[in-house]
Amino acid sequence: MGKEIKTREEDYAQWYNDLVIKGNLADYSAVRGCMVIKPYGFSLWEKMRDQLDRMFKDSGHVNAYFPLFIPKSFLTKEAAHVEGFAKECAVVTHYRLKNDPNGEGIIVDPEAKLEEELIVRPTSETIIWNTYKTWVQSYRDLPLLINQWSNVVRWEMRTRLFLRTTEFLWQEGHTAHATAQEAVDETIQMLNIYADFVENYMALPVIKGVKTESERFAGAIDTYCIEALMQDGKALQAGTSHFLGQNFAKAFDVKFSDKDNKLDYVWATSWGVSTRLVGALVMAHSDDDGLILPPKIAPLQVVIVPIYKGEDKKDLLNEKGKELAAQLKAAGVSVKFDDSDNARPGWKFAEYELKGVPVRIALGLRDLEKNEVEVARRDTKEKIPMSLDGLAGKICQLLEDIHQNIYNKALAYRDKHITKADTWEEFEKLLDEKGGFISAHWDGTAETEEAIKEKTKATIRCIPLNNPLENGKCILTGKPSTQRVLFARAY
Amino acid sequence: MGKEIKTREEDYAQWYNDLVIKGNLADYSAVRGCMVIKPYGFSLWEKMRDQLDRMFKDSGHVNAYFPLFIPKSFLTKEAAHVEGFAKECAVVTHYRLKNDPNGEGIIVDPEAKLEEELIVRPTSETIIWNTYKTWVQSYRDLPLLINQWSNVVRWEMRTRLFLRTTEFLWQEGHTAHATAQEAVDETIQMLNIYADFVENYMALPVIKGVKTESERFAGAIDTYCIEALMQDGKALQAGTSHFLGQNFAKAFDVKFSDKDNKLDYVWATSWGVSTRLVGALVMAHSDDDGLILPPKIAPLQVVIVPIYKGEDKKDLLNEKGKELAAQLKAAGVSVKFDDSDNARPGWKFAEYELKGVPVRIALGLRDLEKNEVEVARRDTKEKIPMSLDGLAGKICQLLEDIHQNIYNKALAYRDKHITKADTWEEFEKLLDEKGGFISAHWDGTAETEEAIKEKTKATIRCIPLNNPLENGKCILTGKPSTQRVLFARAY
Fold this sequence. Notes:
Two copies of one chain form a homodimer.
Chain A: H1 12-22, E1 26-28, E2 35-37, H2 39-58, E3 62-63, E4 69-71, H3 79-84, E5 91-94, E6 97-99, E7 106-108, E8 113-120, H4 125-135, E9 144-153, E10 167-177, H5 180-200, E11 207-210, E12 222-229, E13 235-245, H6 247-251, E14 255-257, E15 263-265, E16 267-274, H7 276-285, E17 302-306, H8 314-330, E18 335-337, H9 345-355, E19 359-363, H10 365-369, E20 372-377, E21 383-387, H11 391-416, E22 418-420, H12 424-433, E23 437-441, H13 446-456, E24 459-464, E25 472-473, E26 480-481, E27 484-488
Parallel strand pairs in A: 3-9, 17-18, 17-19, 22-23
Antiparallel strand pairs in A: 1-2, 4-8, 5-8, 6-7, 9-10, 10-16, 11-12, 11-24, 12-13, 13-16, 14-15, 19-20, 20-21, 23-27, 24-27, 25-26
C-alpha cells in the first residue's frame, strides 16, 4: 500500500527527495536545475506567500514589478556586488531564432546579436536602484518601501528541489531611506517579520543573528539572518535582511535633498525569502511516513474519509460527511470530504499521511451510532474518538494544538542541538557525531573562518543578536575572543 | 496646477502615455521594451489578478509553476507553433560571466557556452506538455486543470507601455482532457469567464468570437477571443482561449488509456490574459483629466480630503474624517483619509482625479455644520451634497452606480461604432473617418483577408459567436459570402 519512501535513517537526502516528489510538491524538469512546482506544492507556497504579503502590507510596504533582465554593465557598478555575486548567471546574447538554411530545425540568428548582453536577474538591486534614481529627488519622496514577488536565476552547479534550484521564486524588498538609522530599523523590522512568520506560521524556531563579513551579501554593510535547524543536524538559512548603507545609492548616483536642501545619498535595505522555505518546512517537520505540514499553511487542514461497508448506509455516511465538512468550512477550516470510491480507506489514509494533512476524520457506521467520529492527528499519529457535538470548535482547537506541538518538537530538537565546544577536538567530534549548532569562540578573522570551513565544512551561521560577551580563546587558533559564535554545517 | 497631459483630441497616443506615466501606473526601464510597473499600477494589476484567480479556482483550476526556460529543440516539435510564433525571443547562450583579463569590467565567459540554447518562455505550451507526458497515463489522471501566473518575453520591435512590452506578466491556463468535447467546453467556459471578468469588473463590454485561420494562435485548432473597443475607434484583443486539439499531445507524445484500456492522445486547451488589460482599461475609460478606474478594481475607491481653514477646527475635521473612513472601511470600501498638509486641497483634487479614484469626499467646515459632505464622482465629475447619516451605505450604492455608468458609456460608444459596410468605398471611408468595428462580408479566404490588411491595416477581429447567417458579397472581391465578420484596426 502507498508509495515507497526511504527512511531518514537509511538515506536522509533520498527521504527528502521522495517526500517532495511522491508528496506531489515538485518535480524535475527538462531544464537543468529548474523544477516544476506541482499544484499541491504551489498551493503550499501560495499560503506562505499570501501570509507574508499581508505582513509586508501591514508594515507599510507596497508591491511593484521590475524587469527580468539586467544590462551587463549594471552588474559592474557596485564593486563588492559584482565580485561576490553575479558570475554564475543566465546570459541572453541574441533575440531571434530562424529556420536553419540547411533544414535542420531552428538556429539562433547570428544577425540578431544584442549590443549589450542581458543577464537574467539573480537579484534586482542594480536595476531597481537605477530606477530609484529617477524616482527620488527630495526627502518628500522617501521612504520607498517596495517589495517584488518574482522569479530569479542563479546558475547553480549542484541543485536540489526547493533548496537550491537554478530558477526559484522569491520576494525581494528594496527600500530607500533618508537616514542610516531609519534603514537599520527597517532591516531589523523585516528580520523580525521573517522570524515571526517562520515561527508562528511554519512552526519552525529560528535564531536571529548577524552574518560575519565573509558570509555577508555582496554589497551589504550588514546581513541579518534567521537560521533554522533541520532533522539531520544541518542548519538552513531561512531568510536574510540586508543593511546596504549608501553603497547602491553611490553606485547608481541616487541623491536626495533633505529638509535643509542639502544633497545626500539615499540609504538602502534589501531583504528576501524564497521557495527554499518549502524545502526547510519539509526537512524540519516530516517523518518516515511523509510530510507533516503545520496547520496554518497546509493547503488542506482536514480530510474526512467515509468508511463504506459496501452500499450499506452509504447515503447516510455521505450526508453526515457533507454536513460535517460544511460545519468545518463555516468555522474557517479548509476541508475535503473524500467520497471517491476508486480507493480503499487504508490507501486514502496512507495518501493523506504522505501529503501531511494535519487532521484526518474517519467516518464509520459504528462510530456514528455512538454519535462519534475517529479523529487522527498527523503529527503524533494519535487517534482520538470525538463526539459530533461541537466538533468544529474542537477541531479548530486541535489545529492550534498541532501547530504548537510541531513547533515545540522542533524547538526541543534545536535547543538540544546547540552545544558548546571549547577545544578543537570537541568541535570536530560534535560536528561529526551530534551535528547541530556549535557555540564556540573564534578569533574574528576571515582567515580562521575559512580555515575552519576547509577543515570541517562548517561555517559561521551567525553571531546571535544580543549575544553575551565572554572572554575566551579561538577554537582553532587559540587567539583571544570576546564572544562565542554559532557554527554548523549547512544547506 | 497638477501635471500636464495631452488631450485625446491633440494626440491620443501621447495622452495614453501621459496617463500611464503621470498617473503612476508604469515607467520606462533601462532595458529596451521592458517596463517597470509602479506600485499604483501594480496594485491595480493585483486587484485584477486576485479576482481572476478566484474565478479560476471557483471553476476547479489550480495553480502551478513551470520553468522560465525552454530548450530550443522543444520549439520545433509542434510545426505550426514554431512557424507562426517563437522566432522573436530572448535566447540564453551562456551561463557565466568573468572578469575581463584586460581589466575592462566583466565579460561573458566563452567557456561557459550552453550545449543547447535556452529560450526565455514566450508562452509555455511546449515545456508544459513535455511535463504532462510524465503526469498522464490513465483517464483517471484527467482532466488536468492547471493555471500559471508568470512573466513571459517576446522580442517586440515596437513597444508601448502595457499594450505591447518585451516582458509582460500574464496567466496561462493549460488543461488536458480525455475527450475533444470536454476540451471544447473548457475553451468556451474560459472565454465566458474572461468576458464576465472584463465586463463586470473592468466595466468594459466585449464581443466574443472566434478568430479566422490566419489570426489563430500558432498550434491551435480554434482560437476564441474577446474584443474590446478603445476610444480612438481601434479594437483591442483582451483575452484568448484556444482549443488545441491533440496537436501538442502528438508533438510531445502524451497518451492516456481510457476506460476500455485503449490508448489515445490527450486533448488540450490553453488560455491567457495579461497586463495588456491594464492598457485596455486606461484607453477605454479615461478622460483628458486623467484615469477613470472602475470601482471594483480600483486600488483606492474613496478618498476623503479635509478642507482646513488654517488651524481652525483642524482637530474636528480630522476626527470626522477618521470616523468616516472607519465607517467606510467597515462597509468594505477601500478608503484613504488624506490629512497630509504639504499640499492644498485643489492640488489633491487634481492628483486624485489624475489617478482615477472613483469617489472623492470633501470635508469642509460649512458642510459639516449642515451635517453634510460634498461627494464628487470621478466618472461624471458631478458633485453631490450628501448627509452624513447613513453615508457608508450611500457610497456603496454610488460605487455600484459608477461601475454601471462607466460600463454603459463604453457600451453605448461600442454599439455606436459597429457599422455595416456593403461596398469597398464605404468600408475604407468608415475605417478612416469613423473607426470602430466594421461588419462586412468576406469571401472566407486568407488571401482576401491579407489583401484587405495590406490595403487598410484592418484585420478581421473575429467572427462573433452565434453570428447570423446572411448571403452577401465579399467587400473586396465580390465573391459570395455566408456571413458578415468584424473588421477593425487594432492594437
